[in-house]
Amino acid sequence: MDSRRKLVIVIAAMLAVLVATPYSGSYVIVLVTHALIFAILAMSLDILLGYTGLPSLGQAAYLGVGAYLTAILASRFQFGLDWTFWLVVVLGILIGAATAALFGLFAVHAGGVYFLMITLALGMCVWGLAYRWNSLTGGDNGIVLPPRPAFGIDLADDVTFFYLVFGFFAVSLVMMAILARSPFGRSLVGIRENEPRMRILGYNTWLHKYVAFIIAGGFGGLAGVLWAHAHGLVSPEDVVLATSVDALLMVVLGGPGTLVGGAIGAGIVVFLREYLSTLVPWWQYVLGGVYVLTILYLPGGLMSIPERIRGSRALSRRARETRNMQTSPP
Amino acid sequence: MSSTILRRLNWGLIAGIVAAGLSVSPIAGAAQELRIGFIAPLTGPFSQVGKDMVNGFQMYLDEVGGDFAGAKVKFIVEDEEAKPPVAVRKAEKLIRQDKVQLFAGGLLASTGYALAPVSTRLKTVYVVSTPAADDLTQRDASKYPYIVRTGWTSSQPSHPFGEWACQQGYKRIVAIGADFAFGHEVVGGFQKAYEGCGGRIIQKIWPPLGTIDFGPYIPTIKKDADAIFTLMAGPMSLQFPKQLASAGIRLPVLGGGTSYDEFVLPSMGDEVIGHISALQYSAALDTPKNAAFVKKYREKYGKVPSYYSEGNYTAAQMIHEVMKKTKGKWPGTEQFVKLLSSVQLETPRGPVRIDEMKNPVHNVYIRIVRKKREHGYDKDELWNSVVRTYPDVGQFWKYPKEEFLKQPVYSRDYPPCKYCE
User: What does pTM read for this prediction?
Assistant: First the structure.
């Protein structure tokens, strides 16, 4: 499938979401908004996991710092509730990136399981701060935000807020897609495939990974700003390990190294979780089962289904041809 | 060839997304239907408590056949996993999709603080049946016009309990409490009252909520204290007395109500006998109303009701009382809040009325854990035997309201630990 057709499909799907969502039930609008925000987080993680081959278990940390920054500015200083919202967006991205820049100094040196462990530990540090630094974060209570910003347009309206989040999602997707196709993105893939070789070729692989780590942190911070306003509440529960794991599973479910896969994964996880949990008490097993089956039978995620169909068709065609050859008399 | 299939697949996907979006259309409300959303932790470490909450509410509904003065009650239960953000999402679901007129429940104080703004934002009644977060009906009460509390404030039983502790002659007490809003408020209320009558809190220890290994905390307890005040929640309640006993500490133990609540009391060992706590309910309460309640609950669910069961049973009863006044018609959000705030009832916990800040005024019982027979059961069991009743306790107790509201909400650092050693 050539890339232009892929592009058309992605744009068509996004347009469908954009057009259909405002006409659905108000709860569906909320869920789609949540899914889009988590899609940004999942895509940012995909830069690390899918393109660079760094499985990070601490992506919730950036969501957390972005969200807490937004909440603290809004509840303490009434800052970011008018046009200054855009400043908060910039600040959120910066603080996410800065946190990643700090964490990256520790994490990027490590590889494989060690990278996993260090990012997990750093993520837990952020949770610890959120939970114990009562005077700043409100501890276990979290922070309740004032109503959403209004600057000409009123974001308190859920449909308006959905459009805003959708805009951020689209811009993030485009930026990350450009990044992935840039020479920088190509070298990240090179590092994923064979780091020693890239090093021998003269690439500063540490710096490449470090920059990728910071970029992922920045997008994580953006997701945090949006999450705080979407939910109206920032709680240490948002920063727990489970959020990081969720993001990781969204990417794996959708297909690592595809960006769009992360978005699809986010949509599926958010909707499955919210609807299943109202239907059956054992919903966690269902979600767990979906993850296990995906990893066992679709290691490339849902995005690899078309490839597999094509692959199996090609295979069966070849098998048929061989059979024909065998049955045809010599 | 393959690409046409792919295209079809992708269009199918898009169509699927659109269809999923459209199919979930709002449910039109039939006349004379009361839709009540209920949020409780049904999975995770607090699931036993959550079950007690749902069972209490459900039992009342079953008693009246799901009919509140002509309104058919549609009772929709959602699992909040004892996590405030999940509770917020579930409340949004209940309000937006199920179109409930009111929702109740939530467990933790932090969940209460998270749910109250949702009720304001979406203009829906929130009956605070369990979360005891003080400020919902104190300093922040004006922010939340659509909530009514039918449960209690965390510090409400602690105030008389502090005075009671003075009367027992305890001079120096070590406090150990779960590190979250509810813990801070229960311990804070106790400290204020206890130090107000001359007692001294000489140490405060805050293990995180959900701690089950108290190894790092128990050895730091000062052995020369006269008593220990504990505040545990959920699975912590079971573990702490066990580990305290096995560490060989024999000090008298006082505690917040949830430390010895009946959700966990039947699973506790004899080490808790003699521990004393304060709450607005005890399953051992010797009134005909409560005896009948306990018998019925036990028959139905196979265990003694906890305050969580009683609290939500009573909440359902109060909602029913409002619907009786309106003859089964939904009076509108504001009117409902007004009517619910004026309810006066005889309940299993005793007489209850709601104060002007929308918090209940009720009895507070000082209860000691004893192994005995109650309500005519033929086996020795652990019960919270009532030793003293403080009638008509409000959230401010003897303190003047204005003065009380001027002080900050009880927290890890308030009241300051003047006598800490």
Answer: 0.83
